[in-house]
Amino acid sequence: MIEYSPGGQVGKKNILIVDDHCVVRRSLMEFLSQQPDLSVCDAVATAEQALDVVAREPVDLAIIDISLGQVDGITLTDMLKRRHPDLIILILSTHDEQLYGPRALRAGAAGFVAKQQACDILLDAIRQVLSGQMYFHSAC
Question: Would 8 be classed as within a structural domain?
């Protein structure tokens, strides 16, 4: 688990990053920390760690990869939404949105961003789902 600005900062939206690749977690932390309205409250590698973070601190948005190991990101999304219905979840994955987007939507995700497009659209997707809208490219 990578600790980063525990508890977030006042006035900023608290974001949890869930990805099994350290480079991705660190890159997202660095990228998002440059935004005046966003704060990464934690970055973790497993579903178990994500469930623990959300249980103990306020999280506005969880950015979750699909491939996490024992518990995949779609299952984690479902688990988180059952326990924390107001939590907003954005899937960020290399997997095909046309295949996994509908599954993510059924599990409770508010959006899906392909990692291949993330540099161009991630901030727009984050702000859109935080404003209560959905963010999917394909028809889900």
Answer: yes
